[in-house]
């Protein structure tokens, strides 16, 4: 359980701080794992509130489309410019499409959607659940014998499992459109040549990895935000602390697990 | 309060309840019974453990020591801050409590309308709790607490923060519900009007213990040092002794 600690006027002991943070981290990871198993057990039994899931899908997915689109578009522009410049120098301008699409499918698509949704949705879920804890709404659910995991976490996770991979694919397509525009404008590569290069480079396995990363991101965003939200007590200050913790833990874990998946699937053997 | 039958069993029994949070001992051997159709007022200064007792009764907290015997699993709790789910409508807030009974939609709506009528909120079914006044939110919380006809109703500071007129209305609802549902009720409060008007029997708590028991009339006229200080709201007495020194 997390609450803001009383102010201590003494200078902090760095060893003690590291020890405390390690203990808090281990505790949080334990809470995340338990919550994940509880959520999966409801989902496997088909105990999913469809109406609430649709509402959450709208909040998580539909409301993120514009911001994910803008981010993917400008990331695609910047990346394609860099790649085009280098490949044109080596006379490999027909490979621009392949290189851009590889980066988009394997890394940029899932990461862009993951980071944006973590910032937009993860923080809002953590703030909402923490406020519900503080205002005793979660206690009210328990008194009515309604499991907060089934009522609050399952619809959010189900919605995220559908919407975050959708947003990743969308980010990938927007990035590709940006790549086509830049390749045409900066390197005189026609869209047909760009797309031929894409088709020759991208493998089915790349899409599998893309979806795997998106599903991992969805799990990290929802589980960290819900676990932190459901274990925080205190006052208004603790809502802010819970939101910050969610962003920090989700972002770090997204980047670490993204690397782990990449290294397991693409590392030279 | 309805007259008690001979050898009547209490609906709720608390036996020697102890509870600590870290080093702080909140409850130190609290025992009492509550009978059907009785409103027990649990009064005392802030931080003396009143709300902790309610949380233990409804299973939100486990006692470190002692036993809670409930002769009904159906418990309704009215929270201090109403605790309505703001993302849902008034009707949906009540419907959650009915979920496990797996009723038909018609039956569910009938019960919800009936309960809202009981608390004077007919026609508010599709309102969001955020659009209701403090008093209306409190009454919605009442309706939610009684939607399953509980045999135990717990009120946590039901009139705190309300104006005197609304407090009187809420107290009237409490008295009416106690009689209608013949439930064992506990009201945690430090509002004078609430424990004197709604309480059939009063327990005064101080530092995690029950220090006085009696009827509200006895409490007002009591010469007991704790009860006298609490009832007359004076600084002179054993409560908070030394709290403002140093």
Description:
The complex is a heterodimer of chains A (269) and B (246). The model of chain A has no long low-confidence stretch (mean pLDDT 90). Chain A is an all-alpha fold and 269 residues long. The longest helix of chain A has 40 residues, at 148-187. Chain A is elongated, with a radius of gyration of 21 Å. In chain A, helix 2 (50-60) runs parallel beside helix 6, helix 4 (96-134) packs antiparallel against helix 6 and helix 4 packs parallel to helix 8 (204-230). Chain A has one domain. Chain A has helices spanning 14-44, 50-60, 65-89, 96-134, 137-143, 148-187, 191-201, 204-230, 236-266. Chain B is α/β, with parallel strands linked by helices and 246 residues long. Chain B has helices at 50-57, 90-98, 105-118, 134-145, 164-181, 192-197, 216-221, 225-232, and strands spanning 12-21, 24-34, 39-43, 65-70, 75-78, 152-156, 184-189, 201-206, 209-214. A 6-stranded mixed beta sheet of chain B has the order 5-6-7-3-8-9. In chain B, strands 2-1-4 form a 3-stranded antiparallel beta sheet, covered by helices on one side. The chains are: A mainly alpha (269), B alpha/beta (246). Chain A binds chain B through residues 132, 135-137, 139-146, 151, and chain B through 55, 58-60, 75-77, 79-81, 83-86, 96-97, 99-100, 144.
In short:
The complex is a heterodimer of chains A (269) and B (246). With 269 residues, chain A is mainly α.
Question: Which residues of chain B form runs of ≥5 with pLDDT under 50?
Answer: 242-246
Total helical elements of chain B:
8
**Beta strand % of chain A:** under 5%
Assembly annotation: heterodimer
Structural class of chain A: mainly alpha
The number of strands of chain B is: 9
DSSP summary: helix tally of chain A: 9
Strand order, largest beta sheet of chain B: 5-6-7-3-8-9
């Amino acid at each position: 359980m997390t609450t803001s600690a009383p102010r201590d006027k003494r200078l902090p002991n760095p060893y003690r701080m590291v020890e405390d943070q390690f203990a808090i981290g281990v505790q949080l990871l334990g809470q995340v794992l338990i919550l994940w198993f509880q959520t999966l057990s409801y989902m496997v039994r088909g105990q999913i509130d469809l109406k609430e899931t649709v509402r959450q899908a709208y909040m998580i997915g539909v409301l993120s489309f514009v911001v994910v689109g803008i981010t993917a578009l400008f990331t695609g522009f910047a990346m394609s410019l860099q790649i085009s410049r280098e490949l044109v120098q080596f006379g490999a301008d027909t490979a621009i499409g392949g290189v851009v699409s590889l980066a988009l499918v394997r890394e940029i698509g899932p990461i862009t959607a993951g980071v944006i949704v973590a910032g937009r949705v993860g923080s809002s879920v953590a703030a909402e659940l923490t406020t519900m804890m503080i205002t005793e709404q979660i206690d009210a659910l328990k008194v009515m014998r309604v499991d907060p995991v089934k009522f609050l976490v399952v619809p959010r996770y189900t919605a995220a499992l559908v919407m975050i991979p959708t947003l990743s694919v969308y980010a990938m397509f927007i990035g590709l459109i940006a790549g086509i525009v830049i390749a045409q404008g900066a390197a005189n590569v026609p869209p047909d040549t760009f797309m031929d290069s894409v088709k020759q480079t991208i493998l089915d396995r790349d899409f599998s990895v893309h979806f795997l990363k998106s599903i991992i991101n969805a799990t990290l965003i929802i589980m960290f935000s819900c676990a932190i939200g459901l274990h925080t007590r205190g006052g208004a200050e603790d809502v802010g602390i819970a939101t910050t913790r969610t962003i920090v833990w989700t972002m770090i874990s997204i980047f670490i697990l993204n690397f782990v998946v990449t290294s397991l699937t693409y590392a030279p053997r | 309060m309805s007259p008690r039958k001979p050898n009547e069993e209490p609906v709720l029994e608390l036996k020697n309840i102890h509870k600590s949070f870290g080093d702080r001992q909140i409850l130190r051997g609290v025992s009492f019974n509550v009978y059907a159709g009785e409103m027990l007022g649990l009064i005392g200064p802030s931080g003396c453990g009143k709300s902790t007792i309610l949380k233990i009764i409804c299973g939100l907290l486990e006692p470190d020591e002692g036993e809670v015997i409930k002769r009904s699993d159906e418990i309704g709790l009215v929270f201090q801050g109403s605790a309505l789910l703001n993302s849902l409508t008034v009707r949906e807030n009540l419907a959650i409590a009915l979920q496990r009974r797996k009723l038909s939609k018609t039956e569910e709506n009938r019960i919800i309308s009936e309960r809202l009528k009981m608390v004077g909120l007919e026609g508010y079914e599709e309102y969001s709790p955020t659009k209701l006044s403090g008093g209306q939110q409190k009454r919605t919380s009442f309706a939610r607490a009684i939607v399953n006809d509980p045999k135990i109703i717990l009120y946590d500071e039901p009139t705190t923060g309300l104006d005197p007129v609304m407090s009187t209305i809420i107290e009237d609802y409490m008295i009416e519900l106690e009689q209608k549902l013949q439930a064992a009720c506990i009201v945690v409060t430090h509002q004078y009007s609430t424990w004197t008007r709604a309480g059939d029997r009063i327990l005064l708590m101080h530092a995690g213990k029950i220090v006085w028991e009696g009827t509200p009339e006895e409490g007002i006229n009591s010469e007991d040092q704790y009860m006298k200080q609490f009832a007359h709201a004076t600084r002179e007495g054993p409560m908070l002794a030394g709290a403002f020194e140093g």
